[in-house]
Inverse folding.
């Protein structure tokens, strides 16, 4: 330890001149990124979001960060840096050989403690859980340290590791983890003592001061390295790749960390390449014919291939390993019916796809067509794909060639052979040397020719045929009448010579060429249903073809009717008309209207109805047309609505017919809507209505109403004396004859509840309702109330003289018998509140049910006494009163 300190003192002195020569570094470091952001946005390619539980290892955020720079510094241009000191210290130039800073001091670690030769300081890193989508996970990294080169071989060095745990691992570290930071091709961990200028130096890059290398006997060049101006660390590894095999869709945990050993001096760092931690990219399964085409394989035939194609998000510079399997709903199986590889395929770096051979297995069963689906075996992925496999038994190859081949020596002919079954594509070998499916031959052929046809599975069939030269065919058209009615069929007749069947080529009105087949030589025909100029331009038979030019005219006639009509002017009038024309065909013509013969196509004086018009020409061609004659909409009498009657001013208008309308009440003078201002509400008129077409109707006994929000006005209340009655008088807002009926409620209060002016007798104040209906059926409801005289319905004498003279001997309750039903209670008190007499539940107006002026059998003292009473009215209401009375002794 003392040696280390002394050496640093000398090294710090030797770097003074070098620092003066440094230039700005292209390496940039940003410590402000969180662990979550560094993993998900920088380090990992996590398309399906299967990374979670991201955490920083170490308490000081300055130990992790994001870096960018040119590729000749670290080896990749951006990524994550994990450092035992502040990540900003990584920025060049290399200012001294002992750069270091303390992050958090002593930091024990469950994994690093197992391999460390001393105490763990300033551990720094990240850890997270992930679910892989591919069976092999890789990422690229570089280890760099200030302990290079002078501490190579020391008993303790800064260390780092990538510890992964999960299904399939049984390593020596925490949770059975293994360290995947290994020297390529070995099981040895990457460290300062394992990768340096002496050991595994092919993986080491020197960045040390020249003086330090000489002082520490580190070997190497006497000059500084090419990264001296760009990065602080004295040495680093080349780009190394961590590789690990995992189980797809299982959950794993990885810890990526670096630490100082025994002290916080001399920083070390791990650089992780951005995007290199790739959990798997999308792929597609395709046939050779494209993504939507099935893969068809035949038994006893050569294999076809399935392509596994990289998705657009795949990194082409890396291998991509994909699992696939047979779908559970497949009929064909990959053990009994076909083979489809091992279920895993790797697309090599730089390639867009890998191919898997698909072969059908031969059996003796006739199973027909069977289907299977190969699907991506990544159930946790956010993508999926499948390809359909069709297993077929190849049908026997069948080749058909006519016994005799007719050909045209002068014009040339096309040979054809009918091929069915087998497995396409087919190959052809003709005896005269051609390999075309339909070769064109000219001149004279041998008396016999042959063709050999082979399919894709190697089945071969050979056929032979005799040859026969032939003259070109001819065609003539006899004179013929090609005239008929539309919808019928004509036959064009042709006289043919040659070897059938024949193919005639023709145009209609110079349109696109058409063809028709006629089987045999001699007279033949073909049907036509279209008018036009027919131009026959060619004829061919089994051997030859000939260009010709024959013209025929075909006509199909129909005297198509074109009708027009006018409806009657007014509803009920018979002045409708029909007129018609038709296409000219062949004269003479005959006409019918509703099956009756007529002379022409003009008709007047028609009432409403459906008329059938028909024309027939000299050929018997017929056309007919239905002509509907309809009454116009009739004028409708004025129909008032309740809404109109409730919204003054009154607005009246007719309906139907053709507006605008005019009105008259004398049958001669017509007016517009201004007429209503001259009419008297409540009066009946003989109303005539005329529309814009001059049509009229009479609306007899038309009642001219008045519009009002209320038919009558009721007072706020009707006053009535208690025990009395009141005669109702209404304030009419509309003519009285506009109101049809009256109904007063409660009906028992009125002597005539359906009369306009009834007499009302109410025992107490209450609501009353009036329901009116007018002559149009509209109703109106009004509510008011009757106010019965509000004075006290009972009284108690304020003086009495109980002397036995029969006059005013008792103090009792006297009440309006029309209002008061019962005395509930009656009490008399002294002025000090002592009850001297009481009674309850009796009818009023009985002096004998009052106090007689005695108490305890003795006359009471003269003076003032208090009383209280409760009475119940006929409507059930309880009234309470209190007062005083004077007892006089005489």
């Amino acid at each position: 330890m003392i040696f280390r300190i002394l050496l640093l003192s000398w090294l710090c002195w030797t770097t003074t001149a070098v620092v003066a020569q440094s230039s700005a570094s292209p390496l940039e470091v940003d410590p402000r990124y969180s662990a979550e952001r560094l993993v998900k946005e920088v380090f990992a390619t996590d398309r399906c979001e299967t990374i979670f539980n991201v955490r920083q290892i170490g308490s000081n955020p300055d130990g992790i960060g994001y870096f960018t720079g040119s590729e000749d510094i670290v080896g990749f241009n951006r990524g994550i840096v994990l450092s035992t000191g502040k990540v900003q210290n990584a920025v060049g130039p290399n200012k001294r050989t002992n750069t270091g800073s303390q992050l958090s001091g002593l930091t024990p670690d469950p994994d690093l403690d197992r391999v460390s030769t001393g105490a763990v300081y300033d551990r720094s890193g990240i850890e997270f859980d992930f679910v892989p989508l591919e069976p092999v996970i890789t990422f690229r990294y570089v280890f760099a340290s200030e302990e290079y080169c002078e501490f190579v071989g020391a008993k303790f060095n800064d260390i780092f590791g990538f510890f992964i745990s999960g299904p399939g691992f049984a390593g020596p570290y925490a949770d059975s983890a293994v360290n995947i930071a290994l020297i390529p091709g070995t099981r040895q961990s990457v460290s300062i003592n394992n990768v340096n200028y002496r050991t595994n130096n092919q993986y080491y890059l020197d960045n040390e001061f020249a003086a330090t290398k000489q002082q520490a006997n580190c070997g190497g060049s006497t000059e500084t390295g090419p990264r001296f101006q760009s990065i602080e660390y004295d040495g680093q590894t080349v780009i190394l790749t961590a590789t690990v095999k995992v189980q797809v869709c299982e959950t794993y945990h990885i810890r990526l960390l670096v630490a100082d050993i025994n002290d916080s001096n001399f920083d070390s760092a791990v650089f992780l390449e951005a995007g290199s931690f790739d959990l798997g990219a999308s792929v597609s399964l395709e046939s050779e014919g494209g993504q939507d085409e099935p893969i068809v394989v035949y038994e006893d035939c050569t294999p076809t291939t399935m392509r596994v194609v990289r998705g657009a998000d795949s990194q082409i510079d890396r291998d991509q390993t994909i699992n696939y399997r047979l779908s559970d709903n497949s009929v064909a199986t990959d053990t009994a019916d076909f083979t489809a590889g091992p279920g895993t395929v790797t697309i090599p770096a730089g390639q867009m796809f890998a191919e898997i051979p698909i072969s059908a297995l031969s059996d003796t069963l006739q199973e027909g067509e069977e289907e299977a689906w190969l699907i991506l075996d990544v159930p946790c992925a956010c993508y999926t794909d499948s390809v359909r496999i069709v297993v077929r038994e190849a049908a026997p190859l069948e080749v058909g060639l006519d016994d005799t081949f007719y050909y045209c020596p002068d014009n040339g002919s096309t040979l054809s052979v009918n091929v069915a079954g087998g497995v396409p594509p087919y190959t052809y070998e003709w005896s005269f040397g051609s390999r075309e499916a339909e070769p064109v031959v000219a001149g004279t052929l041998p008396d016999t020719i042959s063709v050999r046809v082979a399919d894709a599975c190697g089945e071969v069939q050979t056929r032979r045929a005799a040859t026969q030269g032939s003259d070109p065919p001819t065609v003539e058209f006899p004179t013929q009448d090609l005239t008929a009615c539309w919808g019928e069929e004509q036959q064009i007749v042709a006289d043919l010579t040659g070897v059938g069947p024949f193919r005639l080529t023709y145009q209609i009105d110079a349109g696109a060429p058409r063809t028709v087949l006629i089987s045999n030589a001699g007279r033949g025909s073909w049907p036509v249903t279209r008018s036009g100029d027919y131009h026959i331009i060619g004829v061919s038979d089994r051997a030859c073809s000939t260009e010709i030019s024959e013209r025929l005219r075909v006509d199909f006639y129909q005297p198509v009717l074109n009708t027009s009509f006018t409806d009657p002017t007014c509803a009920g009038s018979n002045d409708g008309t029909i007129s018609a024309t038709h296409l000219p065909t062949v004269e003479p013509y005959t006409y019918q209207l509703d099956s009756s013969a007529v002379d022409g196509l003009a008709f007047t004086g028609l009432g409403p109805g459906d008329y059938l018009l028909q024309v027939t020409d000299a050929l018997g061609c017929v056309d007919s047309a239905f002509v509907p004659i309809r009454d116009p909409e009739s004028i409708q009498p004025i129909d008032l609505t309740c809404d109109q009657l409730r919204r003054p001013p009154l607005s009246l208008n007719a309906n139907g017919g053709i507006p605008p309308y005019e009105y008259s009440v004398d049958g001669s003078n017509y007016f517009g809507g201004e007429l209503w201002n001259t009419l008297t509400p409540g009066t009946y008129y003989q109303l005539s209505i005329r529309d814009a077409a001059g049509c009229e109707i009479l609306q007899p006994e038309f009642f001219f109403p008045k519009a009002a929000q209320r038919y009558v006005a009721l007072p706020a209340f009707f006053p009535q004396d208690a025990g009395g009655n009141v005669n109702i008088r209404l304030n009419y807002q509309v003519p009285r004859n506009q109101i049809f009926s009256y109904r007063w409620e409660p009906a028992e209060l009125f002597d005539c509840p359906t009369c306009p002016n009834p007499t009302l007798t109410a025992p107490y104040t209450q609501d009353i309702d009036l329901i009116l209906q007018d002559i149009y059926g509209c109703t109106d409801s009004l509510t008011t109330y009757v106010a019965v005289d509000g004075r006290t319905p009972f009284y108690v004498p304020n003086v009495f003289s109980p002397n036995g003279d029969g006059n005013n001997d008792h103090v009792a309750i006297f009440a309006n018998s029309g209002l008061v039903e019962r005395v509930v209670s009656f009490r008399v008190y002294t002025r000090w509140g002592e009850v001297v007499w009481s009674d309850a539940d009796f009818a009023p107006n009985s002096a004998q049910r009052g106090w007689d002026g005695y108490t305890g059998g003795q006359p009471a003292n003269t003076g003032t006494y208090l009383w209280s009473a409760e009475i119940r009215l006929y409507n059930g209401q309880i009234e309470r009163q209190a007062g005083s009375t004077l007892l006089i002794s005489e």
About this structure: The first helix runs from residue 2 to 14. The longest strand covers residues 545-557.
